[in-house]
Structures are given as structure tokens and as C-alpha cells.
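Hi support team,

I submitted a single chain yesterday and got back a structure, but I'm not sure I'm reading the C-alpha cell output correctly. Could someone confirm the output below corresponds to the sequence I sent? I've pasted both exactly as they appear in my results page.

Thanks,
R.
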Amino acid sequence: MDELSAPKLIIAMPQLTDPNFHRSVVLLIEQNEQGAFGLVVNREAETVIGDLCEGLQVPWGGSEEIRVLCGGPVGNEQGFVLHGPLADDRVVSSREVAPGIHMTLDMESFRTICSRPPPEFRMLLGYAGWGPNQLESEIRA
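Hi R., thanks for writing in. Yes, this is the structure output for that exact sequence:
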């Protein structure tokens, strides 16, 4: 399905009743013959990022109001950071997953970004994953 080539936003139709994706917006990051990987970008968790950072012993330099997002139903212990370009000399290990959107996975980069988060910063726990042809099949259904 060419129209599903990543990156792309997938918006759940109102009639989708699966609680994992009801009214969700997924940033599709990878899609190939092995399956698909994405992050739900519009579902807030109860946890604020400062509390998460405190538990990980990572200094947090951002707003106390920013909540962690539920990135999807798989791997809820795995964290992902989506961020915009960094405006200073900080060096982090990240890759651009969509124009102007970078994804960081490693702890040292997380620590660096959290010390002075850019305005475009989201911390997500978990992800959305599909096996070969599963996403395409679900969309057709």
C-alpha cells in the first residue's frame, strides 16, 4: 500500500472502537515488508515529565505542566523522545523521522535534551506496532 509509506499521520476513524486506537493520531515512522512502527501522539498519560525524570535521576529543565504521552499499547516501559531541532551546540543521537521531527532513543541523549528541552518536545512511553501487512489489512477492514 503505497499511500501508507512513512512518514505519515494516521487518524483513527470515529467508528474505530479498539480502545488502544480510539480517536488516536499515530505518527507512522516505519512501514516495510516486516511490518509497521508508529507512535500515538495525542494521548496524554497521568504522569508529568518532571516526575518521570526524577524517578530516572535525570535533571528536568522544562515546564512542570508537560505530561508524558502514551505512545501505544506495546512496550510501555520503552521510552521515545520526539523533538524539534536543537538551537544550540548540544549533541544528541537522534534521527529525523519526518521533516523537522527527530526521534531520540538513548538515555544519554534523553538526559541532554531534558536539561533544556526545546519547545517542540514530547516524551512517549510505548509504541504501536504491526506485523507484516497487518496495518494495511486493519485499514481496509
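A quick pointer for reading it: The chain has a mean pLDDT of 89. Let us know if anything else looks off.

Best,
Support desk
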